[in-house]
Design goal:
CATH topology of the largest domain: Aldehyde Dehydrogenase, Chain A, domain 1
CATH architecture of the largest domain: 3-Layer(aba) Sandwich
Radius of gyration: 20 Å
Shape: globular
Number of strands: 12
Strand content: 15-25%
Largest sheet: 7 strands, mixed
Order of helices and strands: HHHHEHEHEEHEEHEHHEEEHEHE
CATH superfamily of the largest domain: Aldehyde Dehydrogenase, Chain A, domain 1
CATH class of the largest domain: Alpha Beta
Number of domains: 2
Distance between the termini: 24 Å
Length: 345
């Protein structure tokens, strides 16, 4: 490994430039509609607003400086958020002179195009076992926790496995917020990638009264309906549709449900245990009385929380004890390109 910090930044910038070129290519947009299940508008939204094509130099430097060096990195990608390939490859390329990439079988279009566009001799698509046999190498696995566990069980002892697993986003709203503005901001966070990423909010913690929570739920229902008109939801997998039906049946029994053309908003009484709806533009609103109550409500899923959206520092920055991405509402899906998107580990 002979690259200095500036050379590592140069290699990361090369990936960013490649992503910028791809974001302007209509051919890749059409291919991504077929592989991601997103609508054409959903793919366009992701490429225009959620692909890091103009990162700040300070963020890129932080990405490089916080990345530990490795002899080689093998990247195993997930299909949930196709733009995540840029960040994953940037982190890997900052770490190692040689990076091999195993795209998801379900969505390999963007990762393959990014590698091809970058024309980087240190970056290649995986054609074999790769880093698993290289002492001092690393495997960066993005995906389900079970996938990460499988790699950790099979990797040689001298190879480090860095896992980026299942995550959950939480939005926090208070009765001091403008509820209509907050709802529109949360809806923007939900719409990106049809809520499948680890930064996607699926629960809204509301600090206020039950009556105000009903107003917020109505506003969320309207905001998600408006988003659907501009950016239609894409295809849902059979298991996602089944999980949504189960959530709807449960919340109708214990609380209130707002059912839209392509979304659900559920509101449960304070005494009801926290419920997590499936991806697919579905939100669960939970009423809390204080920060202490909010922390207690999410305790059972705290280890999964990777992102918190809030315009109130008292809630957003103190909801869990481990590092998470904290953003303003409406910005949860637009973190700076300063390292792995998941700060938990």
């Amino acid at each position: 490994m002979t690259r200095n910090c500036e050379e590592r930044m140069r290699d990361v910038r090369r990936l960013v430039s490649a992503a910028r070129a791809l974001s302007r290519d209509p051919a890749i947009a059409d291919a991504l509609v077929r592989t991601t299940g997103l609508s054409k508008s959903g793919v366009a939204l992701a490429l225009a607003e959620h692909l890091e094509t103009s990162p700040a130099e300070g963020d890129l430097r932080q990405l490089v400086e916080r990345t530990s060096l490795a002899e080689e990195v093998h990247v195993v990608l997930s299909a949930n958020v196709f733009t995540g390939a840029l960040r994953a490859l940037a982190v890997a390329r900052a770490a190692a002179d040689r990076v091999t990439v195993a795209p998801s079988r379900r969505e390999s279009v963007f990762a393959r195009a990014l590698v091809e566009q970058a024309c980087d001799p240190g970056l290649s698509i995986d054609l074999g076992p790769g880093v698993r046999s290289v002492p001092g190498g690393e495997i960066h696995v993005y995906g389900h926790d079970e996938t990460i566990a499988r790699f950790r069980a099979s990797a040689p002892k001298e190879v480090r496995v860095r896992g980026h697993g299942s995550g959950l986003g939480i939005a926090c709203v208070t009765d001091e917020d403008d509820l209509a503005l907050a709802a529109r901001a949360v809806a923007r966070d939900v719409a990106a990638f049809d809520q499948r990423g680890c930064l996607s909010p699926r629960v809204v913690l509301f600090l206020g009264t039950q009556r105000s929570a009903e107003e917020l739920s109505e506003q969320l229902d309207r905001a998600l309906e408006s988003v659907e008109e501009r950016v239609p939801r894409g295809r849902l997998a059979a298991d996602e549709s089944a999980a949504a039906a189960r959530y709807a049946s449960t919340i109708e029994f214990v609380g209130r449900l707002w059912r839209g053309k392509a979304h659900l908003v559920g509101l449960a009484p304070k005494t009801t245990p926290l419920m997590i709806p499936p991806p697919g533009r579905h939100l669960h609103v939970a009423v809390v009385e204080s920060l202490v109550d909010a922390r207690a409500r999410v305790a059972a899923v705290a280890s999964l929380i990777a992102a918190v959206g809030s315009d109130s520092l008292s809630l957003g920055g103190q909801l869990v004890d481990h590092p998470v991405r904290v953003s303003a509402l409406g910005q949860m899906q637009r973190p700076p390109l300063d390292g792995p998107v998941d700060l938990r580990g």
